[in-house]
Amino acid sequence: MDELNFTHDQLKRMRSMNKFYHHQFLIDVRIFFTLGLIALISALFNTKIVYILPFLSLFGSVVLAFHAYYLIFSRHYSEYLEKNINKITNKQVFITHELENRYFFPINDKKIVVAKIGKDFSWFSFVTLFITLYGLILYIFGMINIYNVFNDTVTFYSILILTVVTFAIGYWWFVNNTGEKRLREVYDN
Question: How far apart are the first and last CA of the chain?
Fold first, then answer.
């Protein structure tokens, strides 16, 4: 198999991965939205249900970030492969990575997971922040009730510690671009 065909097969694989994780992300968003809504409504009848809200929110954020983790990987690798195909053919055969960088979010810029703030803010960024806000509202509502209504400081601080650890790792990986730096190390060799 020649280099062009091999590279194109890899690109198809990455685009397939991208499609799968986008699809799974949207399924999981609907599941977490529905579970959150059910929990909020159920809390009207049984207030102890608010205990699950922070866990649901945290778990949802980790699962959705996991999908973003693969989306970012597949976008990076797809871009690398498209540029390689363009180089091999000496033509601009593939521009999808350029369109994605302008339309969704610039893959190589600093961002909050997949939300770019500033001049490259997009609908994609808004949707990401909107979903995050929904999860944050569930989390805060649950935490306020755990602390103020149930006076359960042990659970409150346990969840708070778990939250700090989760967001510290998320910041290290996503906002600090640790994973993307690792990819660049491979590409640059």
Answer: 23
